[in-house]
Amino acid sequence: MSLDMALASFALPLEDYNGSETMERYSQHMLLSEITSLPNEDIVLEDENGLLVGWVPYRKLVNELWKQWKLTLTHYNTLLQSVDDAITVVDTKGFIQSWNHKAEEMYGLTSEDVKGKLITSFFETESVVLMSTINERKGVIKKYNQPKPDVHVLINTSPILIDDNVVGGISVERNITDIVKLNDELSSTAASLHELERNVHNEQTPFSKIKGRSPVLQEALYLVSKVSKTEATVLITGESGVGKELFAEAIHKTSPRSEAPFVAINCGAIPTALIESDLFGYEQGAFTGAVKGGKKGKFDAALGGTIFLDEIGEMPLEVQVKLLRVLQEKQFYRVGGTDPIPTDVRIIAATHRDLEKMIEEGSFREDLFYRLNVISISVPPLRERKEDIPELVQLFLQEFSIKYKIPIPELDPEVMYMFLQHPWQGNVRQLRNMIERLIILADENERIEPKHLPNNFVKQPTPIVETIESNHSNLNLDDKIRNALKLTYGNKTAAAKLLGISRATLYNRMKSLK
């Protein structure tokens, strides 16, 4: 049954009508909701030409209005109980009309405790955003509020209007108390972190630069600690900005080669024509412009230590052949040289690309891949370890406050909430750059608020949706549901929204999932 219906949908035939010609007339297309006041008697319906086409007895009209009210009330109550946020509805004077289960959980007050009572009886007047919404006829979106000393929320409010008259207001509150408490806890200790780090600088472990306590990160670090004690070649994979070089450094510094050099080279940053000579050096006269006497390369510089080949997927095929020889024969040739040069280095490679796909495309050697991939370590992206974001934010705030010689600024809880919702395509590097930007743009002693964030930062809901649609378009609905729940960290409302299905459909399908 529709929540609204045309009068003609329940009208009686005109031949059954025995009323007066002076009775009130209504258009047959008029909706129940469009009746501004209840008539005192039966009504007749007319078409566009003024011809009578049917009639509605007064009692039937009242009965239909009653059924529509019951239907609307049922939808309303179901909606209140289905959302994951606290919802409050008040009349124009502030008397509470509705108070859903999430509001009960958040404030420890049952619906029976509060319904019919003034909202200001339970909250300080100045903290009730809903009343200012009613008085000013203007709502708010994602406004930070602290309605109780121990409760922090992001609140949306709107006035409720009938024929442009305010009849009440509604608020939707999302609980961010845990985020704010964590932020406050980190902020309270941030001032002493620099001194503490300086005091223990000599006692730092090689893993100190890798920040975070999330399980996925700790799992990767555990693998690092195991492989670092060996001489095995390591391939580190992960998206750009996750900190692959930090992992390579940690492997080197906890290895038996820790006292020898650690030499890093970005294969994607060196022109193709120069990468071979940069790695292996060249002999005198090897090419036009060569330095007299020749020049040693990175493998010479890393002798006895570790060479880190970042972005190995960008290495040209002809150089890949020569790197393979180094791995197989433990020797190399300089550009323009004919004598083999023995080498003793450990090779750690890293890439953000899919090397197996590159092998299929013919742009990466399969034999080199298997030589490099003795041990593979996957560094998780930041979006898979969001619990590490608050700690990283505070560390970067401290770092750049020291660099630019300004006090560590206070961070608005809503900014931290937005950080936790952001997909961070650029990972830790992007987060670090963002904090530096905020430190630079915010005035001294100014609280960092959402207004300081770049406009394109806020408009970021699409990447996750695209992940479901583009990367998993060949999956059935059950698999898409599993993926959506994983992407939204189990948030069923968000998962249903991403999939474009109702919560009811999601719940029904989840019952059949194994």
Low-confidence runs: 187-203, 460-473
Number of strands: 15
Per CATH, which architecture of the largest domain? 3-Layer(aba) Sandwich
Global morphology = elongated
| Overall helicity | 40-55%
Give the terminus-to-terminus CA distance.
34 Å
- Proportion of beta-strand residues: 15-25%
Which value, in Å, is the CA radius of gyration?
Answer: 34 Å
Q: What's the domain count?
A: 5
Largest sheet: 5 strands, antiparallel
Biggest sheet, strands in spatial order?
5-4-8-7-6
Helices and strands: which structural class?
Answer: alpha/beta
> Taking all residues together, what is the mean pLDDT?
82
State the fourth-level CATH superfamily of the largest domain.
Answer: P-loop containing nucleotide triphosphate hydrolases
Number of helices: 20
What labels would you give this structure?
single chain; 514 residues; alpha/beta; CBS-domain; Beta-Lactamase; Rossmann fold; 5 domains; five-stranded antiparallel β-sheet; five-stranded parallel β-sheet; 20 helices; 41% helix; elongated
Summarize the model shown.
The chain contains 20 helices and 15 strands. It is α/β, with parallel strands linked by helices.
Question: Could you please describe the fold and organization of this structure?
Answer:
It is a single chain. The protein has 514 residues and is α/β, with parallel strands linked by helices. It folds into 5 domains: 7-68, CBS-domain (Roll); 83-175, PAS domain (Beta-Lactamase); 215-378, P-loop containing nucleotide triphosphate hydrolases (Rossmann fold, 3-Layer(aba) Sandwich), CATH 3.40.50.300; 382-458, Helicase, Ruva Protein, domain 3, CATH 1.10.8.60; 462-512. Helix content is 41%, strand content 16%. Strands 5-4-8-7-6 form a 5-stranded antiparallel sheet. It has a 5-stranded parallel sheet with strand order 10-11-14-9-15. Strands 1-2-3 form a 3-stranded mixed sheet.
